[in-house]
Amino acid sequence: MSSNVISLEGLGVASRDELTKAIEAEGCSSSSCGSSDAPEDMDPATWAKVQDHPCYSEEAHHYFARMHVAVAPACNIQCNYCNRKYDCANESRPGVVSERLTPEQAARKVIAVANEIPQLSVLGIAGPGDSAYDWRKTKETFKRVVEKLPDIKLCLSTNGLALPDHVDELLDMNIDHVTLTINMIDPEVGTKIYPWIFWDHKRRTGLEASQILHERQMQSLDMLHERGILVKVNSVMIPGINDKHLLEVNKEVKRRGAFLHNIMPLISAPEHGTVFGLEGQRGPNAAELKELQDACTGGANLMKHCRQCRADAVGLLGEDRGQEFTMDLVPEEVSYDPAKREAYRDWVEKERGDRRQAAEIAKAETEAAVADGAQALLVAVATKGGGRINQHFGHATEFQIFEVDADGVRFVTHRRCDNYCVGGYGEEDKLELVIKTLEGIDTILCAKIGDCPKEDLAAAGIEAIQDYAFDYIETAVSAVYRARMGLPAMPAETA
Amino acid sequence: MAYQIVQASCTVCGACEFECPNAAISFQSDTYIIDPDLCTECKGNFDTPQCAAVCPVPDTCIPA
Fold it and tell me: pLDDT grade, residue A489 (50/70/90)?
């Protein structure tokens, strides 16, 4: 498996030092950095691993879907942001799930989904519980799924405490993506996050617990990196506890070879029944999160397209079709029909090539038409996937935000407008909420929009444009930018 | 001498079944149950009963 070893050195630059310099020079908002990737930004072996994985590649998340199955409910640590009793179908946060499955049920469900959602490329096992601690169930599930769907990518998410015991089994099963949740590299910080761990037949508390957890997490990261398994590190940003510390975490996980770092905001409310929720510990606001992400320049590449999906999520990252595939809707006998997925893959290959080409053309046109140093513009896009402007404004539950300047178009983040529980709001209230969501955005591009919302948006200073319906995002955003900069918009050559 | 599981607060995560050195814990009709004939409270195996040490909910694995 030595050819499988991928190091940071392989990511398109000659050495780690050069990569560091390149990142420092460019900043993490550069399109050549982080998960806003394209094949030219990394070596072919790494690209081959991430090109169909929506969580590891921003580009792939326009085309491919993931599903999670909750098969491993036992956990070996207690986190202050988790309450194991909670289980609500109306909530959307990590670790929350409405249906626990046996490995046999999970395998049936994966096949039912693969038959219906051709975009499916990844099966992940995350919470509730820990996939590496509850390993027998995780392994049994993967084994059953691979028998039927040999081309699906398997990945798991774990706290790392039990992982070193199973790393070589991961290799045997061709698992090349693992997410480690690492919230600290200083055990003192850990004492405020982890009240206890269960380790070597004892419940351990205080500094001892965090010390052991930290050592095992670093061991996991090193072992995975040595074996060429791509590691994404998830960190929960907890204001006042680890927010500033995550800068150090970012540097350290990069040094140890993490492929991607995903800093997620703490989601906390008293009704969640968690220690943090009951103590009134708040989560960070969008500005605080962005400030931390920007400050991480030079460290591990940041993932910015995470949707903090449910542990039983199904579908493209912006959507969750889990409710269509609850176990009562999955037939007792399912046989896999590969036709749809194969046809979809053929289509994607051509489509993403065309899109990349269109983005290059748009970039060249913008560079030629707009002065260097011209002010950047933030544009919101309503999309159902595929990298195109193809969603009705009224149907959007989230908007993807792109930044454009003379250097091109970059994905920045997504903003949700269905946040957690909007049930009970009327249509007008919802529009108000959407306008609030779009604060600071100059233009919104969508496939179609009614006159009333368009006027309300205009009153809030946001121009809604439907003229670029079904165009590629980069082509349309570039054209809008050129128009704003007082230069003529050129016709899209790939239309 | 045996432990029992308080059904009302059990989250059915199964960590106790995994850790029990005596295979005394089994999943029966939607819940985990400790067989008092097999449970030794981990005496001779470990310092503390493993089910209580790993259980995420306080006062759920308790002396019968």
Answer: low
CA triple A450-A451-A457, angle to 5 deg: 95
> Do residue B15 and residue A198 have CB atoms under 8 angstroms apart?
yes
Which candidate in A196, A198, A204, A275 is best for mutational testing of the B interface (most B CBs within 10 A)? A198
Q: Return residue ranges of chain A for CATH 3.30.420.130.
A: 339-484
Strand duo A314-315 + A260-265: pairing: unpaired
Four-point Cα dihedral A350, A356, A361, A364, nearest 10? -160
Residues of chain A with CATH 3.20.20.70: 2-329
Of the candidates A164, A111, A107, A113, the one whose C-alpha atom is nearest the C-alpha of residue A135 is A164
Contacts 24+ apart (CB under 8 A), A106-110: A106/A69, A106/A71, A106/A141, A106/A144, A106/A145, A107/A141, A107/A144, A107/A145, A107/A148, A108/A330, A108/A331, A108/A332, A108/A334, A109/A69, A109/A325, A109/A327, A109/A330, A110/A67, A110/A69, A110/A145, A110/A148, A110/A149, A110/A152
User: Does residue A412 contact residue A378 with C-beta atoms inside 8 Å?
Assistant: yes
Please name the residues in contact with A297: beta carbons below 8 A apart, sequence gap of 6 or more: A23, A24, A27, A28
**CATH dotted code for A339-484:** 3.30.420.130
Question: Please, what is the end-to-end C-alpha distance for chain B in angstroms?
Answer: 7
CATH architecture designation of domain A2-329: Alpha-Beta Barrel (3.20)
- A461 pLDDT above the threshold of 70: yes
Give, in degrees to the nearest 5, the angle at Cα A125 between A120 and A128: 130
Is the pLDDT at A414 greater than 50? The verdict is yes
CB contact set of A463 (below 8 Å; sequence gap of 6+): A442, A443, A444, A457
Residue A187 has pLDDT above 90, yes or no: yes
User: Nearest residue on chain A to B46, judged by CA atoms?
Assistant: A201
**Are A65 and A385 in contact, with CB atoms under 8 Å apart?**
no
User: What is the pTM (predicted TM-score) of this model?
Assistant: 0.73
Chain A residues close to B50, C-beta within 8 Å: 201
Contacting residues for A333 by C-beta, under 8 A, at least 6 apart: none
The tens digit of pLDDT for each residue in A236-253 reads: 999 999 999 999 999 999
Nearest-CA residue of chain B relative to A87?
Answer: B11
Distance CA A74, CA A392 (A): 42
CB A210 within 8 A of CB A184: yes
- If you measure CA to CA, which chain A residue comes closest to B8? A85
Q: Do the Cβ atoms of B13 and A76 come within 8 Å?
A: no
The answer to whether residues A86 and A57 touch, using CB atoms and an 8 Å cutoff, is no
Q: How confident is the prediction for chain B on average, in pLDDT?
A: 93
pLDDT confidence tier of residue A3, bands split at 50, 70 and 90: very low
As a residue count, chain A comes to: 495
Q: Which ranges of A227-299 does DSSP label H, i.e. alpha helix?
A: 245-255, 275-279, 286-295
User: How far apart, in whole angstroms, are the C-alpha atoms of residue A125 and residue A24?
Assistant: 34
Domain B3-63 belongs to what topology? Alpha-Beta Plaits (3.30.70)
